[in-house]
Every structure is written in C-alpha cells, then in structure tokens.
C-alpha cells in the first residue's frame, strides 16, 4: 500500500450522505475525524467502550450512534467506510480484516500499511476542498494543505469563478488597525474586489496588497456636493455595484459598532443590491487587550459597556445615559472620545464616579505606533494635554486598568 511513483494512491471524494460509517474507538483520533464525517451527512456508528468528553457530547446530541462495547465481528456489516482507531491492536487487526472481506474502504490509525484508504490533510475555503497526500509524511501533507488554503483565502493563489457573478457589496470589518487582525473571509473578499471604498481608520497596509486593477476610493475624499458624507458613500457603493463591480466597503473595527454599517446596508437593500456583512474585531475589546487591559476580569469586572464619546454629555444630541453609567462597577470603554474626555470625566464624577477611578487611553492600538497613557478621572484632561493624545484612541475606565502589569507587543 505504500504510495510511490509506480503505484500512487488514487484520490477520490466520498459522498457519504445517509450512508453507514463505522468508527472503532472513541479516543483522540475519532474526536478529530468525526466532525468532518458528521458534516458530510454520514450515518455514523461509534463502537467503543469509552470516549472522550467531546465524542460523548456528539453522541448525546444525536450526531452519532454510540455502541458502548468493544469491537465484535460483524460490526462493519452494511458499512461503506470504516475508521479503525481503537487502542487494542488485535481488535484493530480483526476489524481491518472484516473490512477487507466485505470490501469496505478502511482507514487504520495505527497501521497505514494495513489500511485500504488514507485520510488526506484536508482544508476548505469557500466551497473548495483541498486534500493532500504525501505518502508517509503527514506533516508535509499538512504544510502543503495549509499553504494552498491560505493562498486561496488571501488571494495569493488565483482561483477565479468562471461563471457570471451577480454584483454585490461586502461591508468588511477590517479590525483595529493591525492588518493581520482582519478576518480570513474579509481578506479573501478584498482579494476578489474590483473596487474598495476604504475608511481612514481601516487597516491601510492591506491596500498595498491589492492588484493594480483594483480601484481604491478614499471615503474621506468622495466629493459630497449637495449630499451628506454618508449619503455620498452610499451612492458610491450603489453606483459601482450597478456597474457590475464587486465592491468592498473596508471599515475599521466592526461595521456595526459605531461604523454606520447598517445605514449602508439599508441603502443597498433599497437599491436592490446584494450585501454581505463580514464582522470585524472591534477596537473596543482588541485595543485594550493589546495594551494589556482585560475588559473583564474575574473578581474585578463582571460587565463592560461600550459607548460613543463623539457627542459631549451636555449636548442635547447625546443618547448616552451618563448618570447610569457612573453607577456601574464594571468597565467603561469609550470610542471616539478623546476631545470630549474632559467633559465626560466631569459628568461621570458629577454623577458619583470616584475621582481616583483608573483610566487609560490607548492611541493607535495594535499598530506600530501604539502607546498607552494612564490617568484617573480627575487627572485625565490634564494628562491628555500633557501627552498630546490624539485620535484614534480607545479610552478604558474602571478597576481593570490597574490589573497587571502585562507585557504586550503591538
């Protein structure tokens, strides 16, 4: 059975939906292999006197049928495929022999040479399944698999769709700034885009990776004319999509966390344009974490609240209940509040928040320019002026700021 230049293994994709699959042994091998078999829709019977907690949970959920005993001759009757992974070599050998007699494709975890099938290193990316076999070198198989899947995901391996595509817009959350913190799906959609409408706070380094034909539009420089800024951005998305382009709206953080993503989604829906939302890592959690500040910590904070600070507490447009926030004992995270932090601190203290409550401002979080400035509610206005703290910066207020110290790298 050894794969060589003369007799390589023959690759094939098994369609196991509704077909009987038998797994012998409920240990770590079964735990790794069962999810894919379940996803394939197989009718799975596990034969094993014991199982890992994860495998047991699959049985309790009804995803597999668990026969709680050792393997017995005849257990593979009617099976299309068998995975043999018991800890008893003698039982594995007998099960393998039964599979051979009954022409059941059989994978052996303990003896690949005795098997009639091998499990490839498998990965998936948007409907493409990559399966790699390199004989007796599973680490190389996994490495090749990972390289191909990553290339498909980030666009470095071109795999264009050769069917006509319906124009669409993707609202992609780019994360807090570090280009490595965008989601895999977001990066793949960027690689497939014809037009990218980018925010100032989006991960700018990702734009350098785009192919030359991709049109990059700086949302801050769209000519607004008689339109409001957001209306002009909405119109740009609609116009490019109607022109048959695949459009990515690249936003900082998450599209729906103070990102006006819903306004854009609603405008696209009204124009009859398909829209997909790709969540991003919100700066409200990731930036404090990058600076060594947990937004929750056992015994210190059981909740955290995220608010926008772009409107001052005494502004009639403010929708934030600062009096209630002052009474909370957890963590308060403020976005877009650098220029209003003095007024915000005064409002919190006026409503009962202790003046010595710890506070930290994290500027340019997760990037090479990240810096952290610590203060209290009573001193923050002065500290911001002394340190010349500028947007973008995330403000964290509460006892979690004093936890640590934790050494972090941006």
From TrEMBL:
Lineage: Bacteria, Bacillati, Actinomycetota, Actinomycetes, Kitasatosporales
Name of the protein this chain belongs to: Uroporphyrinogen-III C-methyltransferase
Protein family: Belongs to the precorrin methyltransferase family.
Tetrapyrrole methylase domain ranges (all copies): 169-380
A Pfam family assignment: TP_methylase
Keyword Phosphoprotein among UniProt keywords: no
Taxonomic superkingdom: Bacteria
GO biological process assignments: cobalamin biosynthetic process; methylation; siroheme biosynthetic process
Keyword terms: Cobalamin biosynthesis, Lyase, Methyltransferase, Multifunctional enzyme, NAD, Oxidoreductase, Porphyrin biosynthesis, S-adenosyl-L-methionine, Transferase
């Amino acid at each position: 059975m050894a794969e060589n230049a003369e007799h390589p293994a023959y690759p094939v994709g098994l369609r196991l939906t509704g077909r009987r699959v038998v797994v012998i042994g409920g240990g770590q091998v079964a735990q790794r292999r069962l999810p894919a078999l379940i996803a394939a829709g197989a009718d799975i019977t596990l034969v094993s006197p014991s199982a890992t907690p994860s495998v047991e949970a699959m049985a309790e959920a009804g995803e597999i049928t668990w026969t709680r005993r050792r393997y017995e001759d005849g257990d593979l009757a009617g099976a299309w495929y068998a995975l043999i992974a018991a800890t008893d070599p003698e039982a594995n050998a007998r099960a393998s022999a039964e599979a051979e007699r009954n022409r059941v494709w059989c994978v052996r975890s303990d003896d690949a040479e005795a098997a009639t099938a091998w499990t490839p290193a498998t990965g998936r990316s948007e409907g493409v399944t990559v399966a790699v076999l390199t004989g007796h070198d599973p680490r190389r198989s996994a490495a090749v698999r990972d390289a191909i899947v990553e290339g498909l995901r980030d666009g470095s391996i071109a795999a264009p769709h050769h069917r006509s595509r319906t124009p669409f817009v993707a609202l992609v959350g780019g994360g807090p700034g570090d280009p490595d913190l965008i989601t895999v799906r977001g990066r793949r959609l960027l690689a497939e885009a014809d037009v990218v409408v980018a925010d100032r706070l989006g991960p700018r380094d990702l734009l350098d990776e785009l192919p030359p034909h991709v049109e990059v539009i700086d949302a801050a420089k769209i000519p607004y004319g008689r339109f409001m800024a957001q209306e002009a951005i909405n119109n740009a998305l609609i116009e490019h999509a109607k022109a048959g382009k695949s459009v990515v709206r690249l936003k900082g953080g998450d599209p729906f966390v103070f990102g006006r993503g819903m306004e854009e989604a609603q405008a696209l829906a009204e124009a009859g344009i398909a829209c997909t939302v790709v969540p991003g890592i919100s700066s409200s959690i990731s930036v404090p974490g990058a600076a060594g500040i947990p937004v929750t910590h056992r015994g210190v904070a059981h909740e955290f609240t995220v608010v926008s600070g772009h409107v001052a507490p005494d502004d009639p447009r403010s929708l934030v209940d600062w009096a209630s926030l002052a009474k909370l004992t957890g963590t308060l995270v403020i976005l877009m509040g650098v220029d209003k932090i003095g007024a915000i601190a005064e409002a919190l203290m006026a409503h009962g928040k202790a003046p010595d409550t710890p506070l930290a401002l994290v500027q340019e979080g997760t990037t090479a320019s990240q810096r952290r400035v610590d203060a209290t509610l009573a001193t923050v206005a002065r500290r911001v002026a002394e340190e010349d703290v500028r947007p973008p910066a995330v403000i964290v207020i509460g006892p979690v700021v004093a936890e640590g110290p934790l050494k972090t790298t941006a």
